[in-house]
Design a protein that fits this description.
The chain has about 120 residues and is α+β, with helices and mostly antiparallel strands. It has one domain. Helices cover about 25% and strands about 15% of the residues. It is built from two helices and four strands; from the N terminus they run αββββα. A four-stranded antiparallel β-sheet has the order 1-2-3-4, with helices on one face.
Length: about 120
């Protein structure tokens, strides 16, 4: 009976750092996207800006690619993960453009744990 009162290991989808699986995944993907697409000054991404929303209180950490000249404009790409899942989802009109193939491959590689920049478009 005393065993029920003892605190034990709880599996809540968070690590020792208190971060959810979705936040950990999105941090990895967002860091790689920033490094490979923007910090590297990749010309394929010069007409976009990254809007980081990893600290969302909704439980859906994400980042957006928006037009460089209209930071408040509609997102062209949304990359997000939800709740306690480490699965990363993407949607937006950018995925239907030629650059979408590369974006899809990059995000999938980074979500799987890779951090390299791959090849440019």
């Amino acid at each position: 009976m005393l065993g029920a009162c003892q605190s034990g290991s709880k599996s809540s989808g968070t690590s020792q750092s208190g971060k959810s699986a979705s936040l950990r995944s999105m941090e990895t993907v967002a860091i790689a996207a920033h490094k490979c697409w923007f910090a590297s000054k990749d010309p394929a991404f010069k007409s976009y800006r990254m809007a980081n929303e990893l600290n969302s209180m909704t439980g859906t950490p994400r980042f957006l690619l928006v037009p460089a000249r209209n930071y408040g404009g509609l997102p062209l790409l949304v990359v997000q993960a939800s709740g306690n899942s480490s699965r990363v989802d993407m949607f937006g009109p950018l995925l239907d453009e030629p650059l979408g193939t590369r974006v899809n491959a990059d995000v999938k590689r980074w979500a799987a744990g890779g951090s390299d920049c791959g090849t440019s478009a």
